[in-house]
Amino acid sequence: MLVSARSFDEYRAMFALTDRDLDQRILDCPGGAASFTAEAGRRGVDAVAVDPEYAHHREQLGVLAEREVRHKHADLVREAPNHVWTWFGDPERYTRLRTASARDFTADIAARPDRYVAGSLPHLPFATRSFDLVLSSHLLFSYGVRLDEDFHLAALFELARVARREVRLFPVLLHSGTTRYGSLERVRERLAGDGVPSRLERVAYEFQPGGDEMLVLSCAGYRPPVRTGPPGPGDPVAGVVDPVRWRHREGA
Ligand SMILES: C[S@@+](CC[C@H](N)C(=O)[O-])C[C@H]1O[C@@H](n2cnc3c(N)ncnc32)[C@H](O)[C@@H]1O
């Protein structure tokens, strides 16, 4: 699976983020080498990124993503007719923006390491309702061929557990091409049946043809089942301060 480096502006477009949205506590899952959290931090937005790779390759991740963008450039030029260029303009600008984003990530993870938490779906290391808004780009649905429906359901419920208000996911297409994730409606029905209604919303960002929709899960009414048995990842532990809460705005 590729570790990519989308930018704050891409996130803003993919998730139709308003200034009001950005005034909330936000989780980026998976963060990869995206620079959303870096630029969010500069703007005073309370954002955290989580990704399994932060446990292993923290220092090298941005460099690897940058190298990947460089290697991909020739393919991108060759396959340019298969993409929509309204947002990027052309392959050169795509490569320039993604490279800048990877570099920004590299600088920020070194400067603000606490903002980048190692964790893996479907068990995130955060207490229930830790964030107002959760953003999830290019993992669920995108890798729908490799990750099965049970994983998708477990991961979506986990994202809903840590969100107080909404989870936004983009895109709803498989990784390459124009095919929508096949189990999308079935998964939405299961979520709705357990108190997580959802809606599809068109956004002003399209790179894969037809890939201009995000899925929004409404989490305000969701009551996750209380877990029994020994604590698992993400369960609060007596005497241990929630790692997200103290990492965020002091005094919040
Ligand atoms: C294509 S990248 C997307 C990164 C970022 N959201 C972006 O748009 O640039 C996919 C990311 O998913 C992460 N990933 C893979 N398995 C995961 C899991 N089980 N839970 C959370 N993240 C995972 C990978 O490490 C990788 O960084």
Helix/strand order, N-terminal first: HEHEHHEEHEHEEH
Mean pLDDT: 92
Q: Indicate the structural class.
A: alpha/beta
Strand order of the largest sheet: 3-2-1-4-5-7-6
- What is the CATH class designation? Alpha Beta
Percent helix among the residues?
25-40%
Supply the number of helical segments. Answer: 7
Strand count, sense and barrel status of the largest sheet are:
7 strands, mixed
What is the fold's blueprint, element by element?
Elements: H1 8-14, E1 26-28, H2 36-42, E2 47-51, H3 61-78, H4 91-111, E3 116-118, E4 131-137, H5 149-162, E5 163-170, H6 184-193, E6 198-202, E7 213-218, H7 243-247
Helix pairs in contact: 1-2, 2-4, 3-4
Bound molecules: S-adenosylmethionine.
Residues 1-6, 29-30, 32, 34, 51-53, 120-121, 137-139 line the site of S-adenosylmethionine (SAM).
What do these coordinates show?
- The protein is α/β, with parallel strands linked by helices and 252 residues long.
- The chain has a single domain (1-224, 236-252), classed as Rossmann fold (3-Layer(aba) Sandwich), CATH 3.40.50.
- The protein has helices at 8-14, 36-42, 61-78, 91-111, 149-162, 184-193, 243-247, and strands spanning 26-28, 47-51, 116-118, 131-137, 163-170, 198-202, 213-218.
- The protein has a seven-stranded mixed sheet.
- Helix 2 crosses helix 4 (91-111) and helix 3 packs antiparallel against helix 4 (91-111).
- The protein is globular, with a radius of gyration of 18 Å.
- The protein binds S-adenosylmethionine.
- S-adenosylmethionine is lined by residues 1-6, 29-30, 32, 34, 51-53, 120-121, 137-139.
